[in-house]
Structures are given as C-alpha cells and as structure tokens.
Amino acid sequence: MDSPLIVVNFKTYAQGTGEAAVGIATACRDVAEEAGVTIGVAPQLCDIYRVSSQVDVPVYAQHVDGVSPGSNTGHVMASCVQQAGAVGSLINHSERRLNLADIEASVRAARAEGLTTIVCTNNIPTTAAAAALDPEYVAVEPPELIGTGVPVSQADPDVVRGSVEAVKKINPDVQVLCGAGISRGEDLIAAMELGSVGVLLASGIVKAEDPRSALEDLVSQL
C-alpha cells in the first residue's frame, strides 16, 4: 500500500491554538518521520507563520479567497498565506462553504501562488464538480459525520468509492482524500482500500488527550 497523505485540520479548537498548535505540529512531524508518511497540518490563519517557522512540517491554510491585492478587507489572500509559510490550502470545508464560482476563484488564486489545493466536498456530484476545477486533491466529507467518531469509510463507503470513480472519469490527475470521523488506524486503512490516497481529520487528533499517541495509532497499521 502506498504511503498516504494525512492532513490534520486544527479548526478553531483551543487545543490547537497558539503554542498548542506548535506542539501538535511537532508531534505530526515526529510521527511522520518515524512512520515514513506525510502528515500536514492546517492551523488557524494567525498560527500559520508560528507553526511554519518553528516546525518542519507541511502547513496548509484552512481557507483562501480568490482575491487580488486591493480593497478586500477581511478576505484571505493566497499570496499572504504562501508568504507566511503555507504550502497549500483547504477550500470549501463544510464549515466554510463556498459557491462553485468562488471555489474556482480560490483554486485559481492558490495555483497562481504555487499552493496545493484540497477542495472539500460532501457527496459524489459535488466531488465530480470539484474535480473539474483541477485541484490537486478533493476531500470527501459528509458533514453529518464530521466530529462524530464514526468514519465515513464505515458509515457511507459508497460515497468514497463513488467519488473516486467519478474523479477518475473527469480528471484522473486529481487525487481523493477521505474525511469525517477518521481517528484510528483501521479507519485510515479502510479509506485507502476504498481508493483514497489519504485522509483529512481533525478532532480525533487535535482533541485527543495525547495527540502523539493518537497519531501513532493512526499510522500503526501501515
């Protein structure tokens, strides 16, 4: 089985804010090195530079807007997160949903800055539409399963399998990540057996009593 991509979304959890973000990022780096996998982190925007400047780990923004320099108060420029140390960005997470035109603009803006894009989707048709925008990854996450501890690979495996098939038909260069409810080693293996190349997860690591141990369990069956 190929080495997966694991992306840990810190959301706005207190356990992943400020210096705590550095601690979790350090655990991600150490476990990635020991297991020979790639683990990226998506801290809050204000913590991108804090994490990227202190920890050698791939850092993703949680969001970017498709805007250029100018009068765009409150928006997030791709060039800004890139200069802060991010290598990529989530786009259209279920907690920061966009319309299709805005997703396209965000993908375009991120690509112009050399950022890797992970477009989040919630079902097969949305995944297919996102794949047509040519991001590097789509991450399928049924929102009703996010934070439940019930993995999508168990509750709704057809949405992952169907998303992989739809993406292959539309744009075989786009790769699929699996999200929602992922927390254990068997969840990661199941997601990859359904055709995904890795996982996007959050609370199972960030809110764990011992994030490092949770990460070690996640990669334990590879």
TrEMBL record:
Active site: H93 (electrophile), E141 (proton acceptor)
CDD domains with a match to the protein in the record: TIM
Keyword field contains Transmembrane helix: no
Binding residues for substrate: N9, F10, K11, I146, G181, A202, S203
Entry-linked PROSITE patterns: TIM_1, TIM_2
Gene3D superfamilies, sorted: Aldolase class I (3.20.20.70)
GO biological process, alphabetically ordered: gluconeogenesis; glyceraldehyde-3-phosphate biosynthetic process; glycerol catabolic process; glycolytic process
Catalyzed reactions per annotation: D-glyceraldehyde 3-phosphate = dihydroxyacetone phosphate
GO CC terms of this entry: cytosol
Pathway per the UniProt entry: Carbohydrate degradation; glycolysis; D-glyceraldehyde 3-phosphate from glycerone phosphate: step 1/1; Carbohydrate biosynthesis; gluconeogenesis
Keywords: Cytoplasm, Gluconeogenesis, Glycolysis, Isomerase
Compartmental location: Cytoplasm
Domain of life: Archaea
One Pfam match: TIM
Keyword Cytoplasm: yes
First-level EC class: isomerase
MF term (GO), any: triose-phosphate isomerase activity
EC number: 5.3.1.1
UniProt function note: Involved in the gluconeogenesis. Catalyzes stereospecifically the conversion of dihydroxyacetone phosphate (DHAP) to D-glyceraldehyde-3-phosphate (G3P).
Oligomeric form and interacting partners: Homotetramer; dimer of dimers.
Family: Belongs to the triosephosphate isomerase family.
Protein name: Triosephosphate isomerase
Organism of this sequence: Methanohalophilus mahii (strain ATCC 35705 / DSM 5219 / SLP)
Gene behind this protein: tpiA
